Structure formats: C-alpha cells, structure tokens
C-alpha cells in the first residue's frame, strides 16, 4: 500500500519570557485601552500582542489590576512638563491641568480607569508633587495646599468623567421631563448649559477654584 502523507501544522513559536520587558507590556496595554477601552484589555490579549504566553505577562505584572495601575500611571507620568520658573503659578497649574485632561481623553480607556480607581505609582506621585510645588509658588502651603490639591484632582476627574460619559447634547434631553413651568430658569439657560466647550469650561472651573483658594489662604 502506498504510504499516506500527513499534513502537519505548526504554530509560530512564542518568544521567551526573558526577552519581554515591562515597558513593552505596558505599551501594548495602552494600545488596547485606547482602541477598545477596559473591556478590550485582558492578560491574554496583551500576551498575544507581545507574542508570549499569558504566564509571561503574569510573571511581570501579577494580575490585571496591577497592569491597569501601571498603564494609567505611565500615561499620567508622561504628562509632566518641564519646569519654567518664569511662568506664573496659576498659569502653570491651569495649563498642566488641561494637558492632564487631554491625555486622559485621548486615551478614553485610561481615563475611565483613572476616574473609577486610585492610581498608585511614580507617575502620579510626581504629578502630585508638581501640584504641591506649583501651589507653593503662589504662597499656598499647609492645610490650604492639601485642600487645593484635592480640589484640583476632583475638578479634573469630574471634567474627564463628564466628557467620557455624556455627549454634548445630553442636557437638552432634560427639557420636557417635567412641565416647563417647573424649570423656567433651566429653559432660559439651556443653550449655554447644553452646548459647551469642555476644555473651556474646565479652565474656567479651575480659575474659579483657584480664586477661592487664594481668598482662603489670605
């Protein structure tokens, strides 16, 4: 009888674990979060993107929560500006806040993780130090600085969460939910309230917050 030939298939070899760096893992995780949000991020997908087995990813980051923390902290750490001693402290803080906000909105998956969980890492530690250092330039120290730094983060988180979860026209849908007679002031303001420039509103909110901080510090 003639011998039958067999067709064999081979899977491409995976890379060895020691060839994989933590930086590469985080880079691929950022790509997945940016393109598909948190739902797209899994240890297996990161492993596939890196060309390794999932166990190699676990060896470097422990678990998915650890990977999320590293990924968001990397994006935050990349925002830090060069120090410009001649820039007025308020201008520096507002411009930094706008850069922080834009980075999170440019990576929606990263922004969504940031607003729902605490981030612990060198990037956010340096960011927090920059906020305190900038406030100190304006003479804001002690308890006032702690409260101002907290307010800065709260305003930023609120702006990011609002832009990620609410389309610009969503507030228009408030009209008609109750009789017009119950919302005369809202009806009069609905155009300005519903149609807004998110970054312009954020800048104004920071300026108002800093007005209050300066008054309280005095």
Describe how the helices and strands are arranged:
Elements: H1 22-36, H2 43-50, H3 54-61, H4 64-77, H5 89-106, H6 108-116, H7 122-137, H8 142-165, H9 184-194, H10 198-217
Report on this model:
The protein is mostly helical and 218 residues long. The chain contains 10 helices and no strands. It has helices spanning 22-36, 43-50, 54-61, 64-77, 89-106, 108-116, 122-137, 142-165, 184-194, 198-217. It starts with 21 loop residues before the first helix and ends with a helix.
Q: Which parts are unreliable, with pLDDT below 50 for 5 consecutive residues or more?
A: 7-13
Structure summary, number of beta strands: 0
Approximate shape: flat
The secondary-structure class comes to mainly alpha
- Number of distinct helices: 10
Mean pLDDT across all amino acids: 85
Rounded to an integer in angstroms, the radius of gyration calculated over CA atoms is: 24 Å
- SSE ordering: HHHHHHHHHH
């Amino acid at each position: 009888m003639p011998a039958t030939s067999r067709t064999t298939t081979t899977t491409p070899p995976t890379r060895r674990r020691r060839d994989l760096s933590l930086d590469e893992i985080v880079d691929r995780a950022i790509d997945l979060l940016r393109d598909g949000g948190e739902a797209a991020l899994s240890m297996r997908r990161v492993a596939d993107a890196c060309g390794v087995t999932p166990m190699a990813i676990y060896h470097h980051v422990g678990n998915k929560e650890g990977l999320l923390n590293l990924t968001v902290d990397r994006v935050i750490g990349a925002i830090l500006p060069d120090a410009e001693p001649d820039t007025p402290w308020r201008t520096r803080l507002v411009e930094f806040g706008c850069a922080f906000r834009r980075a999170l909105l440019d990576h929606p998956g990263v922004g969504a993780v940031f607003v729902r969980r605490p981030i612990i890492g060198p990037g956010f530690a340096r960011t927090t130090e920059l906020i305190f250092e900038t406030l100190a330039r304006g003479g804001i120290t002690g308890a006032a600085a702690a409260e101002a730094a907290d307010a800065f983060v709260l305003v930023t988180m609120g702006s990011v969460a609002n832009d990620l979860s609410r389309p610009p026209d969503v507030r228009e849908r408030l009209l008609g939910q109750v009789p017009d007679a119950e919302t005369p002031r809202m009806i009069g303001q609905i155009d300005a309230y519903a149609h807004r420039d998110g970054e312009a509103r954020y800048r104004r909110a920071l300026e108002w917050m800093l007005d209050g901080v300066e008054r309280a510090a005095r």
